[in-house]
Amino acid sequence: MAFTSIADFFAMGGYGFYVWLAYGISILSLIVLIINTMHKRKMVLKTVKQRIAREQRIKNASNMEGTL
Amino acid sequence: MWKWLHPYAKPERSYQLAGKLLPWFTVLTIITFLVGSVWGLVFAPADYQQGDSFRIIYIHVPAAMMAMVAYSSMAIAAFIALVWQIRMAEMTVAATAPVGAVFTFIALFTGAAWGKPMWGAWWVWDARLTSELILLFVYLGIIALYNAFSDKVLAGRAASILTLVGVINLPIIHYSVVWWNTLHQGATISKFEKPSMAPEMLWPLIIMIVAFGAFLGTLTLMRFRNEILARENHRPWVTALISDINMKKLTGEK
Q1: Are B92 and B100 in contact (CB under 8 A)?
Q2: For site-directed labelling of B29, which of B22, B66, B154, B194 has its Cα 20 to 30 A away?
Q3: Residue A21 forms contact with B (CB below 8 Å)
Q4: What ipTM is given for this predicted complex?
Q5: pTM of the full predicted structure?
Q6: Which residues of chain B lie closer than 8 angstroms to A51, CB-CB?
Q7: Which tens digits make up the pLDDT trace of B2-28?
């Protein structure tokens, strides 16, 4: 192990700010990308579901025609 | 002989194949990320010149490397898309571009955070940094162009052409540290020579390169699947797939 204590580890030999800034922003941008990708999937699935529901409604309505 | 490959140009088969590969890439990404970053941050010894600031290398180099790998694979896909008109290839270009853009941003940002303590400046207009910045703009251009057309056939073609034009930037980035006098240091790992790095520092770097590669694979597969669903959303197989997902949700089965 390159560090003797936890405080030592966070200090990164005086470069703590730069090292943690680099790691922090990198992980943050990777997480944003993951969330964006998962959100996109959800949106696509939603659109398809809405289309299926609409088609079903139209079908039901045409079946009911003339029954009023 | 290679005819077995042909069915994979069909969206449904591609979607299923991507779905089968996805868990493997995900697991590989998680394991290598954890091992690589803990090893690099905690166990690797400090550099004798740069101290602990050198630990930024474990994200900087893999991100920069994989940003170029992503671009190269996009260029191959774009070529296939333009020559053989395979729509799956266009979708690959569209799926990879955002991942490559994020990697390029990470490479630039970590480079700045490393440059400040080592060079005394967040940014210098040096050949390596400038060409990398151009790569980011090319990526953003491809993404913007693909999203600018509502007709996705046209969008795919335009994005593919721009991807091929941008290939000129790859050798410039790679050789920028050789061709020009730059502040940026030369390559640490090269195919032809022994790496100029101690093995206990090199191993975590290699693992992190694998991690970023696996991350690139995972996210590209996910986005590729999204792209297929979005563009095929009127096809019967997508309808069947959605009702299947709904059924599984209702019965609580995974």
Answers
A1: no
A2: B194
A3: yes
A4: 0.89
A5: 0.91
A6: 233-234
A7: 788 777 778 889 999 999 999 999 999
